[in-house]
Design goal:
The protein is built from 17 helices and 16 strands. By secondary structure, the protein is an alpha/beta fold. Strands 1-2-3-4-5-6-7-8 form an 8-stranded parallel beta barrel, surrounded by 8 helices. The protein is elongated and about 90 Å long.
């Protein structure tokens, strides 16, 4: 079986994505994470293009990588410069990486309209650049930019550029679908003709694939190219990249390992793939795509009752692989489509003894559907759903009672910031508590007042904090009179949980979610203490 190499360009091509930015420190962290994963080559950037790229190549030398080989990226020389005087080529050498990748023009229109040189001049600079770099580096790759478009427009010239790259000493030719417009149906015939050409030339150079996703086919094109003989695949983690992104390695890697049975280093570390995906999202401060194949939080989430019932009997009925193989988990969702199987699965997950024929199951489903008709959503608020189930069973302890709250927002002048104050009255174990608190906005003030009132009775609330607060307007055609749904994510030192509230009043919806969050914390700690 052919051994493949995985080439990651998240730090260079990935950072060209809109809103995707990494500091030098973050780039180093990403490199170390990809090294743990077993990525063969990590493209660190274009040395000399900006100070941050140059700093990265200096900084990464302070770390000992176990597997990954850092790669410097650049272009063929400027036609006006001899190779030994070209700043771009000099910067590549000075980066002192074990691998260098340079790109050159394959499409004749780019030579004439972008470089403003003759077609033969382009052939010269391709060979010159590679030949000059060859003695300075262990691995030398040539990215044939716009290869597929160039091949379709002028086959003879595209192949001539390839010949020059081979003559210059490239170890591998990377076929780039730079505009992302090539379809999977086109790949086999083009690669067949290229391989026939290389055979006639007596060349055994390796081939690679570098696809962009403008036609939503980057992953498919990459897999097809591998099946047609490419031995290197380039892409980015989570598919980040310019415009519509690059080929997504978190989809390509498991497909190659689990479905196409190829052998490569990352295949031995697949169980860390989801973690790496989330880690890079976190560093980039971008919300993960929950619907992303293999590694997304919804990739193995089941909502329909029939699906859930079948998956519980045999996961293969609705899952193409075992989620654990890529470090993901199976999730059973609770929604208006939920059947008995969903509720029973959740009961088991929550440690609740509930039988299929128990009438409480019917009562829970009825409550669930009524609440969702009002706008409640429990897919991201499973703590609220667990509290709902325990209330239906009469097993939920009453920790406090609200006797009233008042929130005041005040703005005295145009230039003065709004101040918020919340006053709250609670009854805790027969004792009345009356407290007030200031906050950064009315919800924050209410949250602080609630905690202030309760912490004397429940000191463990000091170890709880709010991670995320989201508001969704429901039926926005009602304007300011629309219902809102508030989702809150809370954490302590051991876990995190989500709660939900719905109302025409944002404070009331927030109150519902805050109360559920605190009740869940108190219940969880009490159950742990009594276990």
């Amino acid at each position: 079986m052919t051994t493949l190499s995985i080439y990651d360009t998240t730090l260079r091509d990935g950072t060209q994505a809109e809103n995707f930015n990494l500091s030098v420190e973050d780039k180093v962290r990403v490199t170390l994470k990809l090294d743990e994963l077993g990525i063969d080559f990590v493209e660190g950037g274009w040395p000399g293009a900006n100070p941050a790229s140059s700093e990265y190549f200096r900084e990464i030398k302070n770390y000992e990588l176990r597997h990954t080989k850092v790669t410097a990226f650049g272009s063929t020389r400027n036609f006006k410069n001899p190779a030994d005087c070209d700043p771009n080529l000099q910067a590549l050498i000075e980066a002192k990486t074990s691998a260098i990748t340079i790109f050159g023009k394959t499409w004749d229109i780019h030579v004439v309209d972008a470089l403003h040189i003759e077609l033969n001049d382009n052939l010269v600079i391709i060979e010159d650049s590679l030949r000059y770099l060859r003695p300075h580096v262990e691995h030398l790759f040539y990215d044939a930019e716009h290869f597929f478009d160039g091949f379709k427009a002028n086959k003879e010239y595209a192949l001539a550029t390839i010949d020059q790259a081979i003559a210059g000493g490239a170890d591998a030719l990377i076929l780039c679908d730079t505009n992302g417009g090539t379809l999977p149906t086109e790949i086999p015939e083009i690669m067949k003709q290229l391989k026939e050409h290389l055979k006639k030339q007596g060349s055994k150079v390796e081939l690679g694939i570098h696809s962009h996703n403008d036609s939503e086919t980057a992953v498919a094109n990459s897999l097809i190219a591998i099946s047609c003989g490419a031995t290197q695949v380039q892409g980015t983690i989570n598919g980040y990249g310019e415009r519509c992104g690059n080929a997504n390695l978190t989809s390509i890697i498991p497909a190659l390992a689990l479905k196409m049975k190829y052998d490569f280093a990352v295949a031995k570390n697949l169980s860390h793939l989801s973690e790496a995906s989330r880690y890079i999202n976190e560093l980039a401060n971008l919300a993960p795509n929950r619907y992303q194949p293999y590694v997304g939080s919804s990739a193995f989430a089941h909502k329909g009752g029939i699906h859930v019932s079948a998956v519980q009997k045999n996961p293969l009925t609705y899952e193409h692989i075992e989620p654990e193989k890529v470090g993901n988990v199976r999730r059973i969702l609770i929604s208006e489509q939920s059947g008995r199987s969903n509720v029973l699965h959740k009961a088991k997950q929550f440690g609740i003894d509930l039988q299929s024929k128990d009438p409480v199951v019917t009562a829970i489903l009825k409550d669930l559907k009524e609440l969702e008709n009002q706008g409640f959503q429990f897919e991201g608020a499973e703590a609220s759903f667990e509290l709902l189930m325990r209330r239906a069973l009469g097993a939920k302890r009453h920790y406090f009672d609200l006797k009233g709250f008042r929130v005041i927002n005040q703005k005295s002048s145009q230039d003065e910031a709004v101040s918020a104050e919340a006053t709250i009255r609670l009854e805790v174990g027969g004792e009345m508590v009356h407290t007030a608190s200031l906050g950064d906005g009315p919800v924050n003030a209410l949250d602080k007042a609630l905690r202030k009132a309760l912490v004397r009775f429940y000191p463990n609330l000091k170890d709880m904090w709010l991670n995320d607060y989201r508001v969704r307007v429901l039926a926005s055609e009602h304007g300011t009179g629309a219902r809102v749904r508030v989702l809150i994510e809370s954490s302590d030192n051991e876990s995190q949980w989500g709660t939900v509230g719905v109302s025409h009043d944002i404070l009331e919806a927030s109150w519902q979610a805050l109360v559920d969050s605190i009740n869940y914390k108190l219940m969880k700690d009490e159950m742990k203490k009594n276990a």
